[in-house]
Amino acid sequence: MKESTLSKITASVAVAKGMAQRALAASPNPQWTEYEMQSVDEWIARQGVKLDRSEAIRRLVELGLKAKGKYAWLNSPGT
Question: What residues have CB less than 8 Å from 73, skipping those under 6 apart?
Answer without folding.
Answer: 79
